């Protein structure tokens, strides 16, 4: 049995209470500081929001009231600028923000980039992108050489290059050992112009598969005709994922130059390829594709059969063709699918 | 010349037209439907006192005008000799002038389809009515003054703008946006638009719930709603569905502001009932142009 004296217990309780008291005081002080900061931000916003509006959108004069005097002011300015940049598309506003940030915020962000706290460094990198402070990329590069960056920082750095150092961006992407997720690559490629996408496509053998998948998706979303030839070349690729995405991209663009290139996919062993081909054929008249769509309508896969029936119905002669198929065919599954799709379509009308 | 009368329109008498006029006038401010009254007088330089000829000419001209007015227009005979009136519903001054120009061309090309022995011309008085201050008696006085001034001169046309002033119209504007700064920017932008004859009342809401909890959207005023698609508590689509289920949902003109730029998102939004789609970030000049067109379209 442990012997505890009353005196010891009282001392322990007193100590614990003392610690709790210190923690509470600490929390209260922090809360007070936070509240003061919120109030200071709000005060700056209320004091200047009308002036910023006039300055940005009505050729209002620049005033010294804009110049930040504290970190709270900088945070308030960030909020104001981001509200404009994320919601309003106006080149004059972007230029004014860029010049203001270069004059009054650049030194703050260059300090933040050297901070030991990674979240502050990352926030500074985001603001460099938002306010187009391209001068600060060199500081990020130097930091990359000196110490290890977090994956988020490395991604943000390459994103900054895609925005401000387009010439170096492709080289960096090809030479880097860093592998990003497909979604991250999509974010990078979404802001590239047509010319850079073409250059990147020429380097398809030097970029990793995730990047290539993201590139095909970006091209598909852009719907530029100039990529059709390159995408058609990808139909010969050994990677089935690339072939499927290439067909999907071509379907999205909606132009088929040579039907012969697509016929082998009607007989593909992968149902995904057969499905995408059935979808792609809606961009050609039924007179060219019906014999292949009939094969796909008899496919073993439900999705392929369904898509083939829908593609047939998208053609003006589709209803007639499908009714004839129902009468003439001896494939029960195909007939069921044709009937189901036909009925749904007629009901929708 | 034989005039085919394929229309169902019929020639009304002056006493019959006044109730119609009053109903249409009452609809002006309620449904933003402008109307225009045209008074026509046929005249010739050749003087004739033969009442049979005058009757024949009046009949011919009446048939001719009946064949040219729309089913929605009201043609009536004035008590004075060789004078008619036409009420063009849902039509402004421009349509009225186009109508007069059209019948003038027909008459000139066909060398007067009514009464071939004499060359008749038409004098017209066009009165666009955009407010409910005008009375039919006032219009008749205007007509009387004008037709007394013109002395059988060929093809004279006068426009009266006395009743063209729109009544001050209250338009409610709600801005549902969770970003307070952007909300204020939108408010100031709309406030700075110089829209004559419109009393624009703007209210700001931080989300859909706050808007739906208010009684701001219950009145019968035309109500323009700018709303973000993503908002806390109740999002834009929920607000849209609530508004479009209301009995008087047509009064709402809904602008959806969103970051979603895919065609399928746009199609879904339009099919759900939005009127305009603004992809963020958007140019405020685009918003102002769209809003200006919305205000202009209110008056048909």
Low-confidence stretches of chain A: none
Number of helices of chain B: 9
Strand order of the largest sheet of chain B: 1-3-4-2-5-6
Helical amount of chain A = over 70%
Please report the total strand number of chain B as a whole number.
11
Beta-strand percentage range of chain B: 15-25%
Q: Estimate what percentage of residues of chain A fall within beta strands.
A: under 5%
| Unreliable residue runs of chain B | 1-7
Largest sheet of chain A: none
The SSE string of chain A, one letter per element, is: HHHHHHHHHHHHHHHHHH
Principal-axis shape of chain B equals elongated
Task: Explain what the structure shows.
The complex is a heterodimer of chains A (349) and B (300). Helix content of chain A is 73%, strand content 0%. Chain A is built from 18 helices and no strands. The radius of gyration of chain A is 31 Å and the shape is elongated. The N and C termini of chain A lie far apart (87 Å). The model of chain A has no long low-confidence stretch (mean pLDDT 88). Chain B has 300 residues and is an alpha/beta fold. Chain B contains 9 helices and 11 strands. Chain B has helices at residues 14-31, 51-68, 93-109, 136-149, 180-191, 208-213, 236-244, 263-272, 284-298; strands at 11-13, 35-44, 74-77, 83-89, 120-129, 157-160, 169-176, 198-205, 222-228, 252-258, 276-279. A 6-stranded mixed β-sheet of chain B has the order 1-3-4-2-5-6, with helices on both faces. Chain B starts with 10 loop residues before the first strand and ends with a helix. The chains are: A mainly alpha (349), B alpha/beta (300).
